[in-house]
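Input sequence (246 aa), recorded before submission:
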Amino acid sequence: MTDSTTDSTTGTDTPDKLVVLDMAGTTVADGGLVERAFEQAAARLGVEPGTPAHAEKLQYVRDTMGESKISVFRHLFGTEERARLANSAFEEAYAELVDGGLVAPLPGARAAIEELRAAGHTVVLTTGFARVTQDAILDALGWQGLADLTLCPADAGGRGRPYPDMVLTAFLRTGAVADVRDTVVAGDTAYDMLSGRRAGAGTVAGVLTGAHDRATLAGHGATHVLGSVAELPALLASPTPLAEPS
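Predicted structure, token format:
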């Protein structure tokens, strides 16, 4: 890979970037499947829908969108055994829903990934789900091979967002850039923003197609807030200097 590409419209050199993209809510629309799968998993552990305990746990799931799911279940169910049981039940339920055709690419997401790669950038897709679920989503969308690399928390030593581990694993595995500040992180949650900032990414872009709003994304470190990931190629191609993290 070369050190830069030339923007055909401006004639300016644009440094190649490592672009780390979240999946659900950022590039993939899952139609609320996380909540539906959680309800099935919680029921298996005796948490009945309509109870105060169920409402409290569901709200926590909403508040922690973007975090590794096993970490969420450790918090909710206390013991490692119960957390792993809940996580397995969640992954099984989510996979069944995915097989039912209930996931779809967000508008412009595939084209954005293809455009980024055509411009010389390296694209990595990341998720808080387990590998089996990530692969089920990629298979359902026909996205296997779309990105340069795909990562889940287990690929990064087991820690997902808000830790920086997946971003740094992408940096180390791809060798796409020499400086971590040439990494771009994009996601729809506060945890995506925290993960990118903690990894030292130079650009941390929030998108408004998922869990969190502009204020939440900005408040957790977004250097840019975009309407959708479809706007990311234009942002990186712009000759205007990107905003520095505050």
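Checked by second reader. The two ends are 30 Å apart (CA to CA).
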